[in-house]
Amino acid sequence: MGVFPVLAMVTLVWQGPATGDSHLLIVTGLGGEEAYRSEFYELGASMADAAQSRFGLAESNVAFLGEKVERDPARIDARSTKENVERTLLSMAERAGPSDRIFIFLIGHGSATGSGQESRFNLPGPDVTAGDFARLLEHFPTQPVIFANTASASGDFVKVLSGPNRTIVTATKSGFERNETIFARFFVAAFTGDGADVDKNERISMLEAFNYARLQVVRAYEEEGKLLTEHALLDDNGDGEGSDEPDPRTTDGARAQGLRSWGWMPRTIPLSLYYIASGSKSKRRSRRSNFVRIKCQRRITKQS
Predict the structure, then answer these.
(1) Cβ–Cβ < 8 Å for 196, 208
(2) What was the pLDDT predicted at 204?
(3) Nearest-CA neighbor of 76 among 65, 60, 61?
(4) Rounded Cα gap, residues 111 and 113, in angstroms
(5) Which residues, 6 or more positions from 29, have their beta carbon under 8 angstroms from its beta carbon?
(6) What confidence tens digit (pLDDT) does each residue in 186-223 have?
(7) pLDDT value at residue 19
(8) Which long-range contacts (C-beta less than 8 Å, at least 24 apart) are formed by 70-73?
(9) How far apart, in Å, are the Cα atoms of 192 and each of 14, 209, 220, 295?
């Protein structure tokens, strides 16, 4: 079968009644060192590409804010300043329908001082706080919100942002886990690869993505012989607690389990067709594995 028949078949897969649109905001924060700036950009770009090419999200519904627009002006819409984050979310709120899904994904460094409201995601210029995001999310009163902060010291975002119709993911369990995190690498890999598809139904749920990333983080630390300094949390029952091992039957995870492939389409493209349309499975797996391997070889350091 040639390329054109395959792409035609992919198009047919997407047909079906709309169940609400979806919107994605990716924010890569202040990197500091060039190694971090490059990694944050690559992770954000990979997520943006998967959203459009694999899950069918319209380009107009993907906003990518980065530290340096000049790195990739074709992908990065604007600099990741606090002002632009606020402007983008307010614009998104104006365009979103009452049942549209809102996905916010933060990649970078964080810090925490004082109350949970003041936990910060580091940006060029003024940082954005958990309290800032709490106020911004009030503009989405009916929409399901999926908010993933994969930065260090992100744990306090759970209790500040938790609420009905919200799924909150953080890379750490508190603001005291301030070391560099690697959760984002595996969270992105869950959506760009096939390793997270535990039930083999060729769909990726938020719960599968979270569990995959959490377990891969543990494995990476064990392979480095390091003490685990980041403990990811997921909260989707609105109690503000968060679970490191969510169980849909007893704690968190029921909502995340039902959010298939970010909920962007009623049916997502089967992985087999995705690999045929975008390149061989082995080649894509090789590129993904090399990227994760290179990043994980960086020494996981402790901060005093």
Answers:
(1) yes
(2) 87
(3) 65
(4) 7
(5) 40, 67, 80, 106, 107, 108, 109, 110, 121, 122, 123, 124, 151
(6) 999 999 998 998 888 777 899 999 999 999 999 999 99
(7) 55
(8) 71/37, 71/41, 72/41, 72/45
(9) 18, 10, 19, 16
pLDDT tens for residues 217-237?
999 999 999 999 999 999 999
Question: What is the value of pTM for the model shown?
Answer: 0.81
Q: Is beta strand 22-28 parallel, antiparallel or unpaired with respect to 233-235?
A: unpaired
> How close are the terminal C-alpha atoms of the chain, in Å?
58
**Alpha carbons 223 and 232: distance in angstroms, whole number:** 18
- Residue 75 phi, psi (nearest 5): -100, -45
